[in-house]
Structure formats: structure tokens, C-alpha cells
Design goal:
The chain is an alpha+beta fold and 1022 residues long. 50% of the residues lie in helices and 16% in strands. The protein is built from 37 helices and 29 strands. A hairpin with a 7-residue loop joins β14 and β15. α4 packs antiparallel against α5, α12 packs parallel to α31 and α13 packs antiparallel against α30. 47% of the residues are buried.
Length: 1022
């Protein structure tokens, strides 16, 4: 502290009550820098790009490209082939020998394959197939990289949004709320429960202050803090007077002098050390470094949905490997029987052909687009939810919120507007409504806070026994701190009382702060020559402390049973009008007793006996206009809504009825005491019928979440206070309030509601459900392609046919097009009827029975149509027509040894018995298969069969753009890239016929959905 405010410090003689001046703030910022941390280093873009080549399927394709190119080099000359093998050995040998180089294996394979492809074009036998595979691999990884790079930028923006923490400082004697980045060395920062400490420093005042220092120490138990001089040898987190950036205030209030900021803080030094560590060295998540890294970054760990999709993709991939092995063995047996192993070169060609064909099978089977679909969907959902005022802190929340079955909501600020105002005051025998005849006179009495009348005592209590402040911000007055206390400060301002002047003139000797367990706040103040204890809080807590009351003349008299009954009736009436009530009491103390904070804290309960009841205020907080509609939407969506509030049962029930929370399914309103009295078995059964939990305590909310989860519910919980953190962490989705929420609550949450509105939760649920459906759409599209192509590729050799797919054509169909389709299908907006369906719940599957049925029907149509087309093409060359192509200039594709494709010269007729297609026929088949997929994208928009594929088509322009792009790319491929893709240009009639005939899959889909609608209508479901 001396280095800042000491005689030789930066600001000698700094007035701790006044704070820095504007000039000192500028000086501190220029000399010592801003309170910002140097960002953790990001992985270079080039390394991210190369990492995309390390996927298993990409490695397989690179290996196939290498092998194919080496064989083509041997065809050119033995020397070229040996040179190719030498290059491959030089590139791939070191990573196989040295463990440190294994991470670069895929990159070196890419480099070797690229070099050999270039070599092949310098010889007499260019490796078209090798180049084709390389082009496909680079395009596929490029698209995937571009999409994920965009998502990474969005995650970085989200990470920046997390740092928008505000700090309360005292400058030039005025309380201000500023961004944490603007805090400078020398600032006096005020701390209270729920705040995050913005910098390192020393405490200058503390009252019942406890901090969570787990970020620094790893210990989860709060640590009590107090003022005191720390010796140089003990300035770490173990010293009670030292506080550190990133730690959190869990109880009490205090003030600190900022001694270190930015990278000079302990967290900043750890972050700087992380930046200097080799990125390949792991950081233990349980270490101090790991905890700091996790706090400073947004977690991108796989979500449960991503894990389930990976399991699905792995299952499909292994099925593809099994099919590839079977076809590989079958083709080798066929070649052996046909005499293809008569000489080494023929044997090598046969084995190569079988290997290439097996690779085709694997490429067909592996669902490369699934990871892309999840990435695109999560990024889209996160972006849309943020625009709808839901700031996503953890990606898992994007998917989980859509499966929510129960929402446990706070009342204040979430269901209500958080615009609390004093609407009624009761004291003595009087009860005065705002605007009534006696209100002006009462306000005059309230302004006389040192008088003996009850309104004056209530006003004094409201001003001094409080920690909230009013701050002018952007032309309006906002409450910083507790909203209920803020309503009292506004009331004091209307009465003409200056609460800041009162706090200065009547300082608190001790303050016992409000907690959800005690439900009251106590202050001991010196008033003139006497010491007075002031208490405010819940009526059922404060009134039992009292044995006397002030009458309308300001005289204390015994509080008899009839008085208690009268007050209880007044409070019940206010609660019935949806008002929150707050009771006030005081008692003069013996001025000779010890007044140090520790003694007063120890005797708090003793001092709170024999109080004088001063009166109560009723505070009204109107319900948000959109809450009733949002609650009704939740009910239609099969989501139960419960209100968990600290208000008394009467107020809670009145608000609950107004919001529509209480109905036949959930008619119960219970209190914390009743809930705690229930056994585990009884409580687990009864929570299904509870609509409102009143006078709730933090442990009640945590128990409620646990019991609901044990019933199989997916629970979303809102919270704003420090004590809500355990329930927010336990819930499937914790939602913190962005305006009224404390930093502790935000840190424990997965989503932050930027507008604190319940209706925003409903929007988040809508987008969460849309995320799940979009991924299902792409899965249906992907599996239809995989199943149909796998069956065709597997069955064709056993039918005496060779599928006219080259490796590059299969890559275009299964990699490039799938990637584009994932962008299209995962961009679907939420459909209107989505919130009329029941939630998926905890056990909701990804691939439903209806999806399997649709996949099976569509894939079967593909198989029969395309295998039939192959059979027609097989006999068509002898018959001129659209499928035939006899005559001069015909180029034939015939199956040579090992199953590879050879070309015959123009005009030469292939040998009898060989499977053959002309290039034109192969092009027609290839284009027809691609156009089938384009039309099927529209089919996949409808999952349940309840809507047409064209419903709300304008809502997803990406789909139309991608469909047109794929068709356009296909035109470019067959027209201009014939040497690579082994295609020939098609005429306009060919295109018209192909497009018209392949649209039959869309007609089939519409017909199938019509049958489903009729069936459902017959069963009375629609």
C-alpha cells in the first residue's frame, strides 16, 4: 500500500475517502498502463489449416494419392517410379522414426503427394487420379477450415464479451461505475457480495468480507478478509488484507486500494507465463495455470451432442471399413481367378485397383460432413441467441436449452420489470397509499429523519442501513446494488432526503448484511450522543424481534396481539396486491457498551431483541408485459415453469396468478419451511405439482434442481445473486441475469440473459430446438447419400457392372457437396410449429424412427433408379438414343486388370463380356446422382412429414444459394474439367432431362409426406 499511497509512493498522501482525481487517473494510466491482460497466444492460421489434413479419412486419401502417383510414375519409367518411392521415404520416414515429428506426418504426406503429382506431369504418364484426389482433399479441407475459422472468430468475440465486467470506484469523492479495464493503480474500489475483484490490492475497509480465492489457491472454501498491514514476506492470497484479480466476493462489503493492474497482477503474470509455454505442452486443468486459462477462455470442449454424433460417425465408419475389406477380398479373388496375377506388374495393378476401390468404399461410408454440421449449427445458434439477448458462455448450453423440460425462474427482474417503487407505507395505525390524501404529509415527516416520528425512523433506516447507491448513467438514474434498497433510495429522493449526506453524517459502526438465510440487515450507528441499532427485512423476521411499536405520534408503546394481527392483515393485503413488503425497527443501545465491529457481530442476535417496530413499506414491481404470453408458450411447448422467490407466499401467489404459473398441473404454492420439512421421497413426488416456492433459500433452489433432475427432467435455472451459484452450476442450463446479476452468478452460468427477461429464455429454447432439428436434417441427408452410394458401389461388381465413379467424383459427391449441404441445412430458422411440440428431454435420440424410415425409402429409390440406369446404359450402346452413344468418336471406359479404368481409342469396340460405359454415359450417371442429392436437400427440410419441403423456403436463402451453387459447380465440372473428372460436356437437352427426371425424388418425398399426413389425420393426431 505504501508504494501507492505512502510518503514515497506514486500518489503520496492519497485521500482514501476521496479517491483519485481525474488528473491522477490519467497519470496512473499513462505511467502504469490499462487494466487489461495480454491475450493468450492463438494458434497460427497456417497450423490450423495443416491440422485439418490430420483427419483419418484425409490421411487415407493422401495415402491413396501417393500410391496412385507412384504407380503412374512406374508406368512412365522405372527410374521415375524409384525416384517417387525415394521421395516418399524421405518425407515419411523421419516422422515414423522420431516421435516429436509424428504430429507433422499428415503435413509431410501432403507435401510428398504434391511434389510427386508435379513430377508425374513432367513425364509421359501424368497421374490424373493422383492430382484429382489432391484437388479434392485440398478443397474439402479448405471449406472445413474456412467454416471453423469463422466459428473461431465468433468464439473470440464471445470471449471478449465475457470480460465486460464493471467495477465500482470512488473518484473525486463521487461513486462511479466503470469498466474493469478502466480501473487504474490508486483507485479505491468498492466491493460487495457478488463482485469480481478487478485488480490486485489491499483492503482499506471490510465488513464481514469473505472471498472465493479458488482461482488462485484451488481451495473452494471462502476466506475471511480484514484490513491490516501485510509484511513484505506475506503478501500472497493467505494474507487477510490482500485481494487479487479474478477472485470473487461471496459475502460482506469492503473497499480496496488498487496496487497492481493488468499484466502486473497475479493472474496477469500467470497468463503471461502461459503465453510463453510451448503450445504442445499440456497444462493441467487443476493447476493454477489451468484454472486461469479456463477462466480467460471460452470452453470448446465437445458437447454431449457432438460426442453422440462422433459415436454415430464412428459406427458408420467401421461399417464402411468392413464393407471395404469384403469388397477388397472379393476383387482380389476375382482377379486371381481371371489370371491377373500372371506377372508382377499385372499383380501390382490388380492390387492397386482393389485398394483404390476399397478407398472409394471408405470415402463413401465415412460421414465427413457431420462434424461440419455441428460446428455450423452451434455457431449459428450461438450467433442468433446472442442477437436475441442470450449471451452463450458454454457451447453445451446451445443444445441443452432446447431440451429443457422445466424452467425454474426468479421473480424480480425476470418475470417483473425490476422497476420497484414504494407504493404503500404502514406505521402506527395508519396505512397510506401513494397518491392518497395523507401521502404528502407523510413524505414531509420522512424528510425529518432525526425526528421522533415513525416515517423519519423508516427513512433513516432506509438511508443508513443500506449499501445500494444511485448512479447517473447515460442521462438516467440507475440502481447499483440491491433493487429493493434502490426503491427506498428513490423514495427518499422524492421526500427530499439526501441519503449520501446521511451516510456521511451518521456512519455505521457495524453492518450485518442481508443473507437469504437471515432475511434481514442490521446496522449499528452513532446518532448524536447515542448508539442505535437499525434492522430492516422480511416482516415475519423483523416483527418477532419487536416488543414495542411507534404510534402515529411517535411514541413507543407495547406491541400487543391486536397490533400484531392488524399489521399482519395490512401486510397480507399488500401481498395480495403483488407487493413486496419490508419491515423496519430500531432500538437505542447503551452508549457505554463496546462498539467495535467484532464485538457487535458476536452480540448481533442479542442486540436484535426488544426492538421497536417503526412500520413497513410495500414495494410494487409490475409484471413484464410479455411474461404471460411467454409462460403460455412454454406450456404449449410442454415446458413447466416454476417460480422460486424470496417473497412471502401471498406476494408470490399473486404474481404467479398474474403470470399464469398456477394451473391444474401445478397448483401448489409452498414455502421454504414446508419444502425443508418434506422427506426426499415426498419432495421428489411433490415437485411435479409445485408452481411456486416462496421464501426460498439458496439451498432450497439447489435441492429443487437435484430432485427435478432425479425425476429425469432437463432443468434450466435463472439466478442473479452470489448464493444462486450452486444451483446455476448444478442445473443443466444456468441462466444468469446480465443487468441485475452478480459476477459470481454470471461465472457459474452457461447463458447470460442480457435483458434479464423471461421471454428471452423462451427464444433461447426455440433456437436450441432448431439447432437439434438442423443437425437431424443434415444427418438424414448425409446418411441417405452414404447408404445409397455404399450399396451401389458394393453391389455393382457382383452384378457384372462397374460403378462409373472415379475417386474424384466420389470425393465431390461425398466431401465437397456434403460440406456445402451442411451449411445449407444447418442454416434453417426455427419453424413456427416447433414450440408446439414436446421437448426432447434427457433421452431424446438423434436419429428417430421417422428419419430412418425416410432414409430407407429415399435410399432404396436411389439404388433401384441408379442401378436400373446402369443396366440400361450397359445395353444402350448398340441402340442409338439418349443413353446410347454408338458411332465415330465414341470413347469407351472399360474395366481393366485390377478394376482400374482404361480408355479405348475412338471407334474401337470393347471386347465382349467386359463391363463398359461411354464417357457420355458415365457423365450422365454422375450428374444424375449429384442432382438427386440437390433435390433431396429440399426433402430433408421436413423431418416429421407434417410440412411440405417448400414451406417457408424464403426463410433459408442459404439453401437456395447452395442448391444453385452445386448445380453450377456440376456444370463446370462436366464441361470444363473433363480430364480430371473423366467427363464430357452435356447438351442442354441432357441437362433438362436429368434435372426433370431426378426431381422425381422430390415428388416421391412430397407424396410420402402426404401419405403420412393422411395417416396422422386418420389417427386424429392432426
Amino acid at each position: 500500500m505504501d508504494q501507492v499511497a505512502g510518503p514515497t509512493g506514486i500518489f503520496p498522501g492519497l485521500d482514501l475517502e476521496h479517491g483519485l482525481t481525474a488528473a491522477q487517473v490519467r497519470e496512473s494510466s499513462s505511467r502504469l498502463g490499462a487494466n487489461t491482460l495480454t491475450p493468450l497466444p492463438r494458434e497460427p492460421v497456417w497450423r490450423k489449416f495443416l491440422a485439418k489434413f490430420d483427419e483419418p479419412i484425409i490421411r487415407i486419401l493422401l495415402a491413396a494419392a501417393l500410391l496412385s502417383t507412384v504407380v503412374d510414375l512406374f508406368k512412365a519409367s522405372a527410374l521415375s517410379g524409384l525416384a517417387g518411392m525415394a521421395v516418399s521415404a524421405l518425407a515419411l520416414g523421419p516422422p515414423l522414426v522420431f516421435a516429436r515429428l509424428r504430429a507433422w506426418f499428415a503435413s509431410l504426406m501432403l507435401l510428398a503427394a504434391t511434389f510427386l503429382c508435379a513430377m508425374s506431369f513432367l513425364g509421359e504418364h501424368p497421374s490424373y487420379e493422383g492430382v484429382a484426389v489432391m484437388v479434392a482433399v485440398v478443397l474439402a479441407t479448405g471449406v472445413a477450415f474456412a467454416s471453423e475459422h469463422k466459428s473461431d472468430r465468433e468464439f473470440e468475440a464471445l470471449n471478449a464479451a465475457r470480460d465486460r465486467i464493471r467495477a465500482k470506484v470512488r473518484r473525486e469523492g463521487i461513486f462511479q461505475t466503470i469498466r474493469m479495464d478502466d480501473v487504474v493503480v490508486g483507485d479505491i474500489v468498492l466491493l460487495e457480495a457478488g463482485d469480481e475483484v478487478p485488480a490486485d490490492g489491499r483492503l482499506v475497509s471490510a465488513s464481514e468480507l469473505s472471498l472465493d480465492q479458488s482461482l488462485i489457491t484451488g481451495e473452494s472454501m471462502p476466506v475471511r478478509k480484514a484490513t491490516g498491514k501485510a509484511p513484505d514476506s506475506s503478501s500472497g492470497p493467505e494474507h487477510s488484507a490482500c485481494v487479487f484479480r479474478g477472485t470473487q466476493v461471496v459475502a460482506g462489503v469492503g473497499a480496496m486500494l488498487v496496487c497492481e493492474s493488468g499484466d502486473s497482477t497475479m493472474v496477469g503474470k500467470i497468463a503471461s507465463a502461459l503465453g510463453s509455454v510451448d503450445g504442445e505442452e499440456p497444462v493441467d486443468g487443476d493447476s493454477r495455470e489451468g484454472r486461469v486459462r479456463n477462466r480467460l477462455t471460452v470452453s470448446k470442449a465437445p458437447t454431449p451432442l457432438q460426442s453422440r454424433l462422433k459415436e454415430l460417425a464412428d459406427t458408420i465408419t467401421w461399417a464402411g471399413y468392413a464393407a471395404a475389406l469384403m469388397i477388397f477380398c472379393a476383387m482380389l479373388a476375382k482377379e486371381w481367378a481371371g489370371g491377373s496375377f500372371s506377372d508382377p506388374l499385372s499383380a501390382m495393378k490388380a492390387i492397386l485397383g482393389a485398394v483404390v476401390y476399397a478407398v472409394i468404399i471408405v470415402v463413401v461410408a465415412v460421414p465427413e460432413g457431420l462434424p461440419m454440421s455441428v460446428t455450423v449449427s452451434l455457431a449459428l445458434a450461438m450467433r442468433k441467441m446472442t442477437r436475441a439477448n442470450s449471451l452463450v458462455r458454454q457451447l453445451v448450453a446451445c443444445e441443452t436449452i432446447g431440451s429443457a423440460t422445466v424452467i425454474c425462474s426468479d421473480k424480480t427482474g425476470t418475470l417483473t420489470k425490476n422497476r420497484m417503487a414504494v407504493a404503500r407505507i404502514g406505521f402506527g395505525e395508519l396505512l397510506i397509499e401513494k397518491g392518497a390524501a395523507g401521502w404528502p404529509e407523510m413524505m414531509i415527516q420522512a424528510a425529518q429523519v432525526r425526528g421522533k416520528l415513525a416515517p423519519g425512523w423508516v427513512a433513516l433506516n432506509s438511508a443508513v442501513n443500506s449499501t445500494a447507491v444511485l448512479e447517473k448513467r447515460e442521462g438516467r438514474v440507475v440502481v447499483v446494488g440491491n433493487g429493493t434498497e434502490g426503491a427506498l433510495l428513490h423514495w427518499l429522493g422524492e421526500a427530499g432526503a439526501d441519503y449520501l449526506a446521511l451516510r456521511t453524517d451518521i456512519p455505521a459502526l457495524y453492518q450485518g448484511h442481508f443473507t437469504s438465510d437471515r432475511k434481514c440487515m442490521t446496522s449499528v450507528v452513532r446518532l448524536g450522543g447515542s448508539v442505535v441499532i437499525l434492522v430492516k427485512g422480511a416482516a415475519e423476521v423483523v416483527i418477532p424481534m419487536c416488543d414495542r411499536m411507534l404510534d402515529s405520534a411517535g411514541l413507543a408503546r407495547p406491541l400487543n396481539p391486536s397490533d400484531r394481527e392488524m399489521i399482519a392483515g395490512q401486510i397480507a393485503s399488500a401481498a395480495g396486491d403483488s407487493m413486496r413488503t419490508l419491515a423496519f425497527a430500531h432500538r437505542p443501545l447503551d452508549s457505554s457498551q463496546p462498539s467495535d465491529p467484532d464485538t457487535l457481530h458476536a452480540r448481533r442476535e442479542e442486540l436484535e431483541r426488544g426492538m421497536i417496530f417503526d412500520g413497513f413499506v410495500a414495494i410494487h414491481d409490475p409484471l413484464r408485459e410479455d411474461v404471460a404470453g411467454a409462460v403460455a408458450s412454454c406450456r404449449e411447448a410442454g415446458i413447466s415453469v416454476m417460480m422460486v422467490t424470496g417473497d412471502n407466499p401471498g406476494t408470490a401467489k399473486a404474481i404467479g396468478r398474474e403470470a399464469g404459473l398456477i394451473d391444474g398441473n401445478r397448483p401448489m404454492v409452498i414455502t421454504s419451511a414446508e419444502f425443508q420439512a418434506m422427506s426426499e421421497t415426498t419432495a421428489r413426488e411433490e415437485v411435479a405439482r409445485v408452481a411456486i416456492l416462496a421464501r426460498a433459500r439458496p439451498l432450497d433452489k439447489l435441492r429443487l434442481v437435484r430432485l427435478l433432475q432425479e425425476r429425469g427432467e432437463v432443468v434450466a435455472v435463472t439466478g442473479d445473486g452470489t448464493n444462486d451459484a450452486p444451483a446455476l452450476k448444478r442445473a443443466d442450463v444456468g441462466l444468469a441475469m446480465g443487468i441485475a446479476g452478480t459476477e459470481v452468478a454470471k461465472e457459474a452460468s452457461k447463458i447470460i440473459l442480457l435483458d434479464d427477461s423471461f421471454a428471452t429464455i423462451v427464444k433461447a429454447v426455440h433456437w436450441g430446438r432448431a439447432l437439434h432439428e438442423n443437425i437431424q436434417r443434415f444427418i438424414q441427408f448425409q446418411l441417405t447419400i452414404n447408404l445409397s452410394a455404399l450399396v451401389i458401389a458394393f453391389a455393382a461388381p457382383f452384378m457384372g457392372l462397374r460403378p462409373p465413379f472415379t475417386v474424384l467424383q466420389l470425393l465431390w459427391i461425398n466431401v465437397i457437396m456434403d460440406t456445402l449441404a451442411s451449411i445449407a441445412l444447418c442454416s434453417e430458422p426455427p419453424r413456427p410449429g416447433l414450440m408446439l411440440e414436446k421437448p426432447k428431454g434427457r433421452k431424446g435420440g438423434i436419429v428417430t424412427t421417422a428419419m430412418w424410415r425416410s432414409i430407407g425409402v429415399t435410399a432404396a429409390f436411389y439404388v433401384f433408379a441408379l442401378l436400373g440406369l446402369l443396366c440400361l446404359m450397359k445395353g444402350a450402346p448398340d441402340h442409338p438414343g439418349w443413353l446410347g452413344d454408338s458411332g465415330a468418336g465414341t470413347i469407351w471406359l472399360v474395366e481393366g486388370p485390377g478394376g482400374h479404368v482404361d480408355h479405348l481409342p475412338a471407334g474401337e469396340i470393347p471386347p465382349v463380356g467386359e463391363a463398359f460405359l461411354t464417357l457420355r454415359q458415365a457423365t450422365i450417371f454422375f450428374t444424375a446422382y449429384v442432382m438427386f442429392q440437390v433435390w433431396n436437400m429440399f426433402n430433408c427440410r421436413s423431418l416429421s412429414g407434417g410440412a411440405s419441403a417448400f414451406a417457408n423456403l424464403a426463410g433459408n436463402p442459404n439453401l437456395l444459394f447452395v442448391a444453385a451453387a452445386i448445380a453450377g459447380f456440376q456444370f463446370v465440372v462436366v464441361t470444363f474439367l473433363g480430364p480430371l473428372f473423366q467427363t464430357v460436356p452435356l447438351g442442354i437437352v441432357d441437362w433438362i432431362v436429368i434435372i426433370a427426371s431426378t426431381s422425381s425424388v422430390l415428388a416421391l418425398g412430397e407424396f410420402y409426406r402426404m401419405l403420412l399426413r393422411r395417416r396422422e389425420a386418420a389417427l386424429g393426431r392432426w
